[in-house]
Amino acid sequence: MLLVYVPRLTNRLGYTLNVLLSYILHIDYQITTSIAAFMEHEGPRFSYGVDAPLADEPSFRCDTLLFETSVAPREIGYTLVGDTHAIFPVEQPSSLPFDPFAASFFMLSRYEEYLPFVADEHGRFPSSQSLAARDGFLMQAVVDRWALLVRDVLCQAFPSLQHPLHNAEFLVTIDIDAAYCYRHKGMLRTCRGLMRDALLNHDYDAVRRRIRVIMGKEDDPYDTFDYILDLAQRHPSIKPVFFVLLADYSIYDKPIAYTNRTHRQLIQHLDDYAKMGIHTSYYAVEQPELVELEMQRLSAILHRPIVRSRAHFLRVAFPDTFKTLIDAGIQSDYSLGYAEEPGFRCGTCTPYPFFDLSTNQELPLMLHPFAVMDTTMRKYKTMADAEIQQVYASLVDETRRNGGTLTTLWHNQNLTDSDQWRYNRQMLEYFASV
To answer: How do residues 383-402 score in pLDDT, each as one tens digit?
Structure first.
């Protein structure tokens, strides 16, 4: 049993120790504020928040962040430890040249997202305003790396703590913004689509394709679900998670009607082979009552409570969005990642619990950050295939290095066999086979 001495235990500090030691390093530990108990302990131990070691133990000097209760702008220093970017440098003597616990808390809590920022067109926190992007470490799972640096320090002093890394896992999540491109859209939406294709776009191939799909002479291009389920059957380790949009129709939410019988049967079919969650609507940030309404729709289809969520357009607001999810019964959220950039928004490839900085409390919600979305490299960055493959390979290597979970975000409509999206299938096959 590892014993940790701290001069004062705060909610922030207790939370951070738990994420790094339990969730990432899988080390059993206890915390003490008693110097006498710490000195009597004969097993592995370290101290935190003291100016010098109490005995001969590893000791980490601290920044004040974990002993504060407010949220305020602050100057954050930067250093390198080998090839690992680090923040919150500290003076010596210290077992590491930075405070790995304050640094981790800053990233995990999304501290910077509680501060004023210039939002993008959808009201989102843009990657360009993140410390990780500005300092060039967005593609590193720095929290996991920092935890491993702590482990290395501890294992040098206490070899019994040495244990192999967990095998990396790869999680495929699929957002169903619209299950079908042409089918099951109702007379009004179908007529409007035909008029748009013919009169506005003069795209008569699209008109013919729409008619052939509606008449059953051609497959709907968005209906890629048999392919996804077949892939999951061939690669059982990927265990896909689907998030279904069941919002009312709007400018940003355009799902198939939740009352449509075929749509409901599809959702029930997917539930037989995969995990399911709600894809909360675009306007749920401003109208939190929509979350429970949309969850009730999915629950009525699946005949059980809904416990997973991801926000449409990845629109979240700290901490209100996550409090709303908790109140509605959500246990796991998968919304944290950037639409416009690949990388580790929260600095980690490990699922971890949510911490509310407005109350300085850990709340019962697991966060599953994703590292890359299928449209990021095509829509936002216009990368060539070789560049895209390099990004994906880098994320896989980073996750393997840290023994974490690489969560990826895909859309059923972007897994078609068309020239535009065929490369997505190749990359999904790559992830499934790593």
So the answer is: 888 899 999 999 999 999 99
Mean pLDDT per 10-residue segment, the chain (434 residues): 97 98 97 97 96 95 97 95 97 95 98 97 97 97 98 96 88 96 74 64 68 79 94 89 97 95 98 97 98 98 98 98 98 98 98 98 98 90 88 96 96 87 87 81
**Domain segments of the chain: what residues?**
2-105+142-161, 169-181+220-433, 185-219
Residue whose token pair is 């530990």: 29
Class of 169-181+220-433 per CATH?
alpha beta
**SS3 readout for the chain:** CEEEECCCCCHHHHHHHHHHHHHHCCCCEEEECCHHHHHHCCCCEEEECCCCCCCCCCEECCCCHHHCCCCCCCCCCEEEECCEEEECECCCCCCCCECHHHHHHHHHCCHHHHCCCCCCCCCCCCHHHCHHHHCCCCCCCHHHHHHHHHHHHHHHHCHHHCCCCCCCEEEEEEEECCCCCCCCCHHHHHHHHHHHHHHHCCCHHHHHHHHHHHCCCCCCCCCCHHHHHHHHHHCHHHCCEEEECCCCCCCCCCCCCCCCHHHHHHHHHHHCCCEEEEEECHHHCCCCHHHHHHHHHHHHHHCCCCCEEEEHHHCCCCCHHHHHHHHHCCCEECCCCCCCCCCCCCCCCCCEEEEECCCCEEEEEEECCCCEECCHHHHHCCCCHHHHHHHHHHHHHHHHHHCCEEEEEEEHHHCCCCCCCHHHHHHHHHHHHC
